[in-house]
Amino acid sequence: MMRYLCASCVIIATLSEVSIAQTATVPASTAAPVAMPSAAVTTAATDELVTTLKAQIAEMRRSEDRLLSNIHWTLGTVVALALGLGAFSWWSSKTVYDRDIAKMKEE
Prior knowledge:
Layout: H1 2-22, H2 39-106
């Protein structure tokens, strides 16, 4: 138990050192200027992203429609089977009842 506790403490300490090292700031005097992309490049990339996202949404809707269609067919089949079994049960019970009534009248 103590061995596992010490191992987890070492992992946590290592992770905290890594996160501290990653958050070290660079002085502003040594930072290189960042070139901003032009508006045309940004617009083209945005348009491509929007087109891709619209295609993904259309595919998701198509998948949801197929899933709902399967659910409706499955529920319809289950209800039809339940009604069929209920009708068969009623018919067989009625025929047995009618046969019993006929036998009781004979006696």
